[in-house]
């Protein structure tokens, strides 16, 4: 049986973490495990994760970080722990609020397993007829501007870099998560830049696939504060400098 480990970064998620949904999914999908990274939370997130561990047993484990390191740092810590301790075939990450519902993992896995040469799958929030993708207009248009900017910068026809649902083969993850990220929020863009740097555009185009999600919804309680939003252009500039220096 293929072994998949999903990392779920958590920062003050006690009111948003759907414990019952995670526990039900664990029971129905024995090949998929979860690592919850408690990223310096100051609320009752620790107790919610303990409840999950009781419900799911060893297939839902937690890592407690004493201080907040940001989403990228938390995801990286979880991925490295999964690779070192559980020897999975596939690793990935998913937002704790389940903006992408858990069945979305299965569609990403299907693409990863059925597409030759594919080593990274990204959920994509494309609103199509028959889908249930619900985004507020301002987030949709800001997202399109950002994604288009990144697409031009990386010379890569990517539609949605920031969706919090991504899967990787263990082989690729060992390489792209080996070094700390430069940015707290735009680590998804850094991952793409690293794949391009290591493998080149032609091969990266075969390795990375985007999958339109059937269901996605905006959740209240976003962690992106105005101060964090102001750092986005700065982080994007850092990545651009790296891209230019690496000759991507």
Can you offer a commentary on this structure?
This protein is α/β, with parallel strands linked by helices and 248 residues long. The protein is 48% helix and 19% strand. It has eight helices and nine strands. The strands form two sheets. The protein has a seven-stranded mixed β-sheet with strand order 3-2-1-4-7-5-8, with helices on both faces. A two-stranded parallel ribbon has the order 6-9. The longest helix is centred in the C-terminal third of the chain and has 21 residues. It starts with a strand and ends with a helix.
Q: How would you summarize this macromolecular structure in one to three sentences?
A:
This protein is α/β, with parallel strands linked by helices and 248 residues long.
Give the arrangement of secondary structure elements.
Layout (H helix, E strand, L loop, with lengths): L3 E7 L8 H10 L3 E8 L5 H12 L3 E6 L4 H17 L3 E5 L8 H12 L5 E5 L7 E3 L2 H18 L10 E5 H7 L10 H21 E5 L2 E3 L8 H21 L2
Helix pairs in contact: 1-2
Features:
seven-stranded mixed beta sheet, alpha/beta, single chain, 19% strand, 248 residues
Radius of gyration: 17 Å
The run of helices and strands is EHEHEHEHEEHEHHEEH
The description of the largest β-sheet is: 7 strands, mixed
Instruction: Write down the overall geometry.
Output: globular
Strand composition percent? 15-25%
Helix content: 40-55%
Mean pLDDT: 92
Question: Given the helix and strand composition, which structural class is it?
Answer: alpha/beta
How do the strands of the widest beta sheet line up side by side?
A: 3-2-1-4-7-5-8
């Amino acid at each position: 049986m293929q072994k998949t480990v999903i990392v779920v970064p958590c920062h003050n998620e006690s009111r948003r973490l759907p414990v019952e949904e995670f526990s039900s999914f664990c029971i129905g999908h024995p090949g998929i495990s979860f690592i919850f990274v408690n990223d310096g939370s100051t609320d009752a997130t620790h107790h919610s994760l303990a409840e999950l561990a009781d419900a799911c047993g060893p297939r839902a484990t937690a890592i407690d970080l004493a201080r907040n390191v940001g989403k990228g740092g938390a995801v990286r810590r979880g991925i490295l722990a999964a690779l070192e301790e559980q020897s999975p075939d596939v690793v990935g990450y998913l937002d704790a609020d389940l903006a992408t519902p858990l069945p979305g993992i299965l569609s990403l896995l299907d693409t990863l397993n059925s597409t030759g040469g594919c080593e990274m799958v990204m959920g994509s929030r494309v609103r199509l007829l028959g889908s249930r993708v619900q985004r507020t207009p301002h987030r949709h248009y800001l997202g399109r501007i950002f994604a288009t900017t990144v697409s031009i910068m990386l010379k890569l026809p990517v539609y949605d870099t920031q969706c919090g649902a991504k899967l990787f083969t263990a082989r690729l993850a060992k390489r792209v998560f080996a070094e700390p990220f430069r940015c707290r929020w735009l680590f998804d863009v850094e991952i793409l830049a690293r794949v391009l740097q290591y493998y080149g555009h032609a091969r990266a185009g075969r390795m990375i696939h985007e999958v339109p999600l059937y269901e996605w919804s905006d959740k209240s309680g976003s962690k992106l504060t105005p101060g964090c939003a102001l750092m986005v252009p700065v982080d994007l500039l850092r990545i651009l400098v790296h891209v230019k220096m690496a000759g991507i």
